[in-house]
User: Which sequence fits this backbone?
């Protein structure tokens, strides 16, 4: 996805907010802020690939200010803890639903977990405890390819590669992953390398919430990337992408990158656009805040 002017404001605000929150001296903060602005001045235009730029900016911050990554680690642990506390109510509710209805509910739950996002200007992130079954059931779609997704995976025998996004959100993903496996599919997962990207799931988070017990295989990207940059990921991650029959892409960053990359296989995008540029790229600015499930 190519950036809009609004993306510049988001990139500047979120990164400078992290710098400001650091315990570093004001001289160090000013130096890092200037470095960020220099990168944006030289690299930001309407043709830049947005997720590569976002990766460079974030790595600049955490490389110089490790307490920013420490902050996100603490936040992620709490988000994951709260989601784990809330998971049983969704498992119980979904277990009473038949077939496609159960699948749709678990897709919606997975999508709504995407609202646990700390990196978008103008978005007020929810906590995992805000998600209750009535909230999930009442939330509307902007784009709904759930039945196409269901037809694709319900026959079983597929290798599904799941691209995880935020802490908390990933806990809710486990119920849909279990459903995919119940259908007879193999599910692999990719999570971020340490120190991660904002509040995205890393291997440490994944082990805490038990993803290694749910998935058939759990891997990291092999790069400090915001998404699966095919020019940067490691050999195991690349192999997983190449061998997968279907990719499940969670969240905005994966969408921003993969919407312009042809992997030669179906990609299922599950997200809630939290800004107008992403919503507009999907086809309707009114998609902001609504569930998008798109099979491409």
Assistant:
């Amino acid at each position: 996805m190519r950036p809009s002017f609004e993306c510049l404001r988001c990139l500047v605000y979120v990164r400078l907010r992290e710098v400001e929150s650091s315990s570093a001296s004001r001289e160090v903060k000013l130096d890092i802020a200037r470095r960020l602005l220099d990168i944006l001045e030289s690299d930001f235009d309407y043709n830049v690939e947005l997720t590569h730029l976002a990766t460079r900016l974030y790595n600049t911050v955490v490389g110089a200010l490790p307490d920013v990554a420490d902050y996100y680690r603490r936040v992620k642990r709490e988000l994951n803890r709260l989601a784990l506390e809330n998971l049983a109510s969704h498992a119980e509710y979904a277990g009473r639903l038949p077939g496609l209805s159960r699948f749709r509910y678990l897709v919606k739950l997975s999508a709504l977990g995407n609202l646990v996002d700390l990196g978008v200007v103008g978005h007020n992130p929810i906590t995992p405890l805000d998600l209750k079954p009535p909230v999930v059931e009442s939330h509307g779609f902007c784009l709904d390819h759930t039945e196409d997704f269901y037809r694709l995976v319900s026959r079983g025998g597929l290798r599904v590669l799941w691209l995880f996004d935020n802490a908390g959100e990933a806990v809710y993903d486990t119920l849909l992953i279990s459903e995919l496996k119940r259908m007879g599919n193999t599910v692999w997962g990719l999570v971020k390398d340490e120190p991660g990207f904002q509040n995205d799931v890393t291997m440490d988070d994944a082990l805490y919430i038990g993803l290694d017990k749910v998935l058939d295989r759990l891997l990291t990207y092999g790069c400090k990337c915001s998404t699966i940059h095919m020019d940067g990921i490691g050999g195991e991650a690349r192999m997983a992408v190449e061998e997968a029959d279907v990719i499940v892409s969670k969240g905005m960053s994966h969408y921003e990158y993969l919407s312009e990359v042809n992997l030669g296989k179906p990609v299922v995008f599950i997200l809630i656009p939290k800004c107008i540029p992403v919503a507009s790229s999907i086809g309707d600015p009114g998609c902001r805040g609504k569930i998008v499930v798109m099979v491409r």
In short: The first strand starts at residue 141 and ends at 144. The chain has 13 helices and seven strands. The first helix runs from residue 5 to 21. The mean pLDDT is 96.
